[in-house]
Structure prediction request, 57 residues.
Amino acid sequence: MEYIAVLAPSIVVGLIFWFAMKSIFNADKSERQAEARAQAEANLKNSGPASEGPAAK
Prediction:
């Protein structure tokens, strides 16, 4: 029983750290996906038909 009392705080801190790191990595992955979508949309707009824009006037 003494071993549980000694190891429990370390296990709890380790689990908190693991959940925190997992949420940080998931947020980073979501941010990278959103940035890639935004970049793809920007590239699509920039490579649109040549008749658009100030040069067509």
In short: The mean pLDDT is 89.
